[in-house]
Amino acid sequence: MLKKAVIAASICAATLVTTPVFAESVLRLDEVAVGELDPAKASDYADSILMFNVYDTLVLPQQGGPGHVPHIAASWEVDGANYTFKLRDDVKFQSGNTLSAKDVVYSLERMQALGAGLSYLFAGVNIEAIDDTTVRFTLEQPYAPFVASLVRLPIVDMAYVKSNSDSEWGEEFLSANGAGSGAYSVKSHNPQEETVMSKSDSYFLSVADAAPDTVRLRYGLEAATVRTLIAQGEHDIASQWLPPEVVQALAKDGAQLLTESGTGAFYFKMNTTKAPLDDANCRLALSHAFDYGTAVQMIAINDDISAGSPATGAIPVGMFGANGPDSVMAQDMAKAKEYLAACQYDPADMNIEVTWIAEVPLEERFALLMQSNFTQLGIKSEIKKLPWALFAEQVSSAENTPHISQLFVNAVTGDPDTLLYGMYHSSTPGTWQSPEYLNDAMVDKHLEAGRSAADDAGREAAYQALNARLMEIAPTIYGFDRQSVFAASNRVKVPALSDPTQAFGLDGMGFSFRLMEMVE
Amino acid sequence: MSAVIRLLLRRLGISVIVLIGVSMLIFAIARVIPGDPARIALGPNAKAEQIASLRAQMHLDESLPVQYGHFLADLSRGDLGISLYTNRPVTKDIAQFLPATLELVFCAGIIMIMLGLPLGILAARYRGRWPDHLIRVLSLVTVSAPGFVWAVILMLLFAFYLPLFPIAGRLNDSFDIARVTGFLTIDTLLAGDFAAFTDALHHLVLPAIALSLSGIGQAARLTRANMVETYNKPYIEMAQAYGFFPSRIARIYAFKPSLIPSLTIIGLDFAAMLGNAFLVEAVFAWPGLSRYGVAVILRKDLNAIMGTVLIIAITFLIVNIIVDLLIAFLNPRIRHSARGSA
Amino acid sequence: MIRAMRILASNPLSLVGLLLVLLITFAAIFAPWLAPFPTHNGAVIDFAFANKGPSARNWMGTDLVGRDIFSRILYAYQISLMLGIVVLAIATPVGTAIGLIAGYVGGWTGSILMRIVDVFLSIPPLVLAIAMMGVLEPTLTNAMLAVTVMWWPWYARLVYSIARSEREEGYVLAAEVIGAGTMHIAFREILPNCLPAIITKMTLDMGFVIIIASSLSFLGLGVQPPTADLGSMVAEGARYLPDSWWLTVFPGLAILVAVFGFNLLGDGLRDILGVDE
């Protein structure tokens, strides 16, 4: 017994003496697993954080406003379908290699060849290297927001990949290692556990000293764990997926709340091919019956900050074609009943299948809310939980696609085209974004006008018309405009996520670690 | 050939047969998955040609026996295919996640033996008196809740309300330990970092206790039952009649013969723990094979599911062989017959 | 029977077990009448009372959409007990029949049957059920199926070992001598001698089935919401620790109490029926 006590005491003493003291600053944050390090396969939020920090892109979104600014590119010219980019000549990869036009060509071709992640953005794009610092993209179809999609083309160090891998595209190598020019280099990567990155000393832009020296991006932490780690000062930024109650508890304890908005919305998508939702009147009845007010209350953190703001129409506020704040969506039972009366189906026969994604428990509450709203109309409904993988599989056929699917969709490049085209164009049915299976000639026309319009005014007009049409045929219940809320310790300052004039208007870009400042 | 070696060979032979059966069983389970694994793997934006080519690559377009043949051929090369979830070879994933689970399970096993056997001995020695009743009720309580309930309760009490232990993970971030074996308690010692070693142990305490609680109860009950049976044997009564000290009787005459059946059950409990680790790892964010297993199952990741279940079955068989050998070693009948035939 | 009652009465722990089992069964059967909020089993929302701790109105607090946790626990017992009964009602006869045949007939048939049993037993039970649930749709029926598939081999193993030892007993040899059929001997002569062990195991197993089923739903592979289920209640509540502790602690204790009851009772039965551990 005594011996045990002595050992215990010496263990404690050892812990006290050798606890390491940090000279360097560490930022700790979390996201859902897995973190995909291969930039050509990046699609979700964690992947984007990795990509934006380890790799660079030709352009960056303008902070605090619309448009794009040069980054790796020094300048660019547009001539019809030809986009010619002049590259900076002072950009070095973390390997020491100089970034050149060949790397840009390799990166685009690699993305197209692998066909994963967001590679669909670059379908029909051809590229050639004019000289070491000039590349020219040629589009097969006119695409107005092409420059915006370049924020999704990370430049990979071709020579470094080839020297470390036998295969043409180095998939295995890049899934475990970084090969970029970004401000942070990968120290270790475990797709389920964490990625450790450290500040690179050779970045081509100057990086503030206060920016974190080391960043630990942890994956798959439980909400309760994050909540406690932040309270104990052992975690810095929580993912946006924390349930509102937990964010509330953290805010009460003094955590700061970071926000990111304007790129997406939360939708309740209706399968327009399945009775009774193939009748627009029925869809309109459901969308008027939905209690938008309560939904927004459910996601409020406190009086000032909420994980969403009331939707004003089919397009989130801040994008081309959005309606003004005066046309906020609200429940209107009288109208709902009117539309229901006009619907060709008998409400007594309806049984609406409302699904929610297993990985997002908050959605269960929306499902329950919807169910009680529909009951008020005299419509029966059934709630079903679906794991994401199964959902993605089911939506590939219109028949198996549930009546109502709940989805958070965002514009992957920040441009409305990448939000709306994939959801509503008749050529893209049956993806996870388009369980509506919408097939409407007018919607198609407006969408095409939106991506081919020559100037911003033309695009604004096209998207306004689209918005009006989408409200008229209601393929979707436009739940709320999404605002991501991140609970964070006070050890870190993130202007891009707290100051609207510094915001990027692109999901995940606010997590550019080089722009953060550690306070302690 | 000695009896022990003969036993070992026999066990290995049976294990191989069982493993083939397991592989067929898993293969059968994995192939009835509803939904197309290739489509799920490639994600929502994949095109039909990509899906077709992945299907061909995974042999999904061939007949089941041919698919099983491919599976066995790959397996014999130690190739379990690529995990569609992590995009890495399954063997690599398993090599990375298995040590964390084994470390947890071994630790829980040690706690189970260290607490379960003594409690059983105590109960048997005081059979029918209050320590016996108390231990009986306690062991019934511990086996009455699944590991995740214990995990939540322990976490709430000793990590949240009384923050004595860390609530998640295996090691504090501040330690940078080279992963040699994957067993952090060993790696930290290899690195000579004693502080990191204690930190790793510190992280192990709550999950290991949560995992071992039901095993402790079972081990205690079993040891008690076997010892009570031994106590009723004539030679113990004789020892008592000779006036030997009760503690000596308990330790030497009653305990040893009772150990043998207990060992068998400990082997089985180890298996149960490999399964229950699924639950405890989820609560403590323990980055082990079980967490990986659940993730791949939710994503219908065929290769990874098969790899995970197979490796768990192999681990289980190995442990059982070790237990059998231990029993053979402890059991005079087998040991002596070994000597006799040598 | 009277003797059994007397032994039971003299063993207070088993009596407690019996009472707990009766109480839980009663609560489950009469949940619609006993629950303070009988509608809260399903998809009901009451945001005014969401996420509140225990109070006079809601003894065990409310969940995140305002449903009464106590009411939901009563309903969840229905699911747990039904699952246990169905699983054992299928697994026991199947396992017993296979064990009897393997044990009494022996030879090649017995070896093959027992190797099959070994295959099932060499995957940790929960892992097998998880793997099965992974490929099936998570519904109550499939959860029962998965647990049943992992359960029968244990009965086969148990009955096999008893049948093996009974095979050489005098009464079996006597039956053989007078020319009784194999099936007759296995099911009429040997089976009755296995019954005490089987009944004890079934009582204890009710508890274990509840544990395994709740484990499956804890991992999201079992009964689906909005149906109340103890395992998924714990899993969902765990995200809100430590602030909303009532979401997890009460359903967790509910599992503990139910299983404890069956274990106490089974433990008592073992003494009464004279079964070895």
Question: Could you characterize what this model shows?
Answer:
The complex is a heterotrimer of chains A (520), B (342) and C (277). Chain A has 520 residues and is of the alpha+beta class. Chain A contains 16 helices and 18 strands. Chain A has two domains: 26-237 and 489-496 and 507-518, D-Maltodextrin-Binding Protein, domain 2 (3-Layer(aba) Sandwich), CATH 3.40.190; 259-483, Dipeptide-binding Protein, domain 3 (Roll), CATH 3.10.105.10. Chain A has helices at 2-18, 45-54, 101-114, 146-149, 158-164, 171-176, 223-231, 244-252, 280-289, 292-298, 333-342, 362-376, 388-394, 416-424, 441-452, 456-473; strands at 26-31, 59-61, 68-70, 73-79, 82-87, 125-131, 134-139, 184-190, 194-199, 214-219, 256-270, 308-310, 351-357, 380-386, 404-410, 476-488, 492-493, 517-518. In chain A, strands 1-10-9-8 form a four-stranded mixed beta sheet, with helices on one face. A four-stranded antiparallel beta sheet of chain A has the order 4-5-7-6, with helices on one face. In chain A, strands 12-16-11-15 form a four-stranded antiparallel beta sheet, with helices on both faces. In chain A, helix 7 (223-231) runs parallel beside helix 8 (244-252), helix 9 runs antiparallel to helix 11 (333-342) and helix 14 runs antiparallel to helix 15 (441-452). The two termini of chain A are 43 Å apart. Chain B has 14 helices and no strands. The radius of gyration of chain B is 24 Å and the shape is globular. Chain C is mostly helical. Chain C has helices at residues 2-10, 12-29, 31-34, 69-105, 107-121, 125-135, 140-166, 170-177, 182-218, 230-238, 246-273. Chains in contact: A-B, A-C, B-C.
